[in-house]
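Q: Protein A?
A:
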Amino acid sequence: MTEQVRLAQGDAAPDFTLPTDDGEQLTLSALRGRKVILYAYPAAMTPGCTKQACDFRDSLDALAAAGYQVVGISPDAPAKLAKFRERDGLTFPLVSDPEKKVLSAYGAFGEKKNYGRVVQGVIRSTFVIDEQGRIELAQYNVRATGHVAKLRRDLGL
């Protein structure tokens, strides 16, 4: 496997401006002063990604109470993200990165194992970004099921 970017605690979180599920633009640096959980997932409306998104949705009150803004990122087009949000009642922004530039900058796109084969794709990952825009926690190859509960434990919530 080729060497890929891996962000670590203390690294500057790569800034971005991407279209969202509602047709707006979301800029990471505009969220400075707030803690952000940016999670990368392969594809909207697939079983694992739906489970993970719904877990974030169901944990949103606790995360928001602790000062966290959740943002999901995938290569899906904004129209598909809007359908995902509506279908599953998601109440946090989903951003579209069809060229995978931001996903790559975070080390969340590249070679991964899928059913024993090495493929190029989105690496399910979660990044906790502090109020100054630095990585507080970077988790790669997370599981869709149970990840949000584990993340809450890791954050002491």
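Q: Protein B?
A:
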Amino acid sequence: MSYLSAPGRVVALVAILIGSAAAPARAAEALATFAGGCFWSLEAAFDKLPGVLETTTGYTGGQDDAPTYERVTSGGTGHLEAVRVRYDPEKLTYETLLVTFWHSINPVDRQGQFCDVGPSYTTAIFTHSAEQKRLAEESRTFLEQLKFRRPLATDILDAKRFYPAESEHQDFARQHPQTYARYRRQCGTDLGLAAIWGR
């Protein structure tokens, strides 16, 4: 019996030649987590992107295992207000999420974001893989060197346990559009972003 007449050996040879007998399936969904000041605003920004399956506001990065809005915003828990994004990587790239994140914040403010001041309103990218970390670090370096010409205030950290926020903080911009628009106007968010990003 020749080598090529043995079906099992043919399959093995093909696998060696092309690297695999079958291409690995891509993940149907992926997670990304960002902290960018008020989680209402960051959630609203991500909700506009085609390919986003779900956004959840919450708390992450700290040591408190039972965070609440009051405890987090009063300081001392170590948590940041954050948004977890579940998305379809076939329709939306992590790079697009990064661009949306950067354009939604003031990345040089170490005290918070616009009218929201305090440690829970500082910015960070929480990465879920080595590839996310690489892309996040490259994007930060690009902005530091070519736009801001100084170190940014946004940390890049490994993802930690994420605690969903209370129900009244979920999907706030869509559930309460007038209240959200008033908050954003009083906070000066759009004027601030226009001054930073030229839009």
